[in-house]
Fold:
Amino acid sequence: MSNRPSPSVLPLGRMLAGSLALLLERRSALLHALALPWLVHVLIDAWLLYAPSSAEAALPAIVLLRLAVYVLLAVNIHRLILLGPQSVPPFGVGPFALRELRYLGWSCAQILAAALVVMLCAPLVALSQPMGLTVALLVSAWLVSRMALLLPEIALGRPMDVASVWQLGKGAGFGLAVLVVAVPLLAALLMFPLASSGYLLLQWLGITGSLLSVAFAVTGLSLAWQHLDALRRPALAQTVASAGEVLDPEAQPSGTAAPSVSLAPDAARGILEVEVQGSFGTRDFGHVASGDGLLSYHGKLRGLVISLHGGAWEASEASWDALDTLLSHLGFVRVHHEFLTRIALVAPGNWQPLVDRLGKHFAHAELRMYPTDASEGARAWCAGEA
Structure:
């Protein structure tokens, strides 16, 4: 009998506390993400206060600009939580590209879906106010929250798979509604008196609070997506068993022991080295999936060096099964896969007969094998220096 927690239940208390803890821990990157939206809001509010006639004439452009910076903020926060602090550009100034347009489009689709629900519930609202209105709002919040699970995947640059993401949130709709709808709504109600006070300093304080509440809600959504995705991910136990001595679940006991998998980025050269020392266990996958050491937001991961150390990594079917599992958990590599041009595998033994299998993970990259004493040569080749 599996003892995994029910995927239909979100630990809301842990999500809320975790969101606050993560934002405090990564406060430097958070300030970068907030910088551009805060500055734009401050300048717009000053314009509206001191030159209202010209600002009102440009109101459509102002609305679009505010919407754009909120999208940039949300995308940056998703990436901050799921990929790490280095994924946030300096001062939050990143390109408004296809990813952001997709994010904006899906956000608008959520609003349209909520409006459609309210329209369909209009007869119920007319017959039984306020109960009918409550039902309409609850159904809208549930629908918007289920749809919101696609936003973290869009922020990571993944293809849109609406069906699988809808299934991902099955049974967790109202828990998600607390994170996605209730938290921002409560924050908006608290900040509204400040934002409408007429005093510039109080308005700036309200702007800061509103942006922080958006960051908090997006963080909660990111953690919820990560939690639900992990619960529905195929269990690693079968892979561990098939990989034999390489995947050793007891090799890294819980506690303060360092993971056997380390990630070493070299932003100047545009490469990343994933190094595995000896056998590794299931607990290491959390470290790998976290994307620690990701290259900067506007850098491109051009080359990847996979260094395997220890006798357990002699070329074999068990070693390949373990490597296949490791690669499937490199989420940040999937995000950057379109830029990867060179993959170097540094490992003991003769892996050349297995090289074609790497193609399923790196379809567009050139692959090379290196012996364990040629790590620097592998790095130089991946960086295009040799």
Notes: The beta strands are 261-266, 271-277, 303-309, 342-346, 366-370. Confidence is low (pLDDT under 50) at residues 1-8, 233-259, 289-298. The chain has 16 helices and five strands.
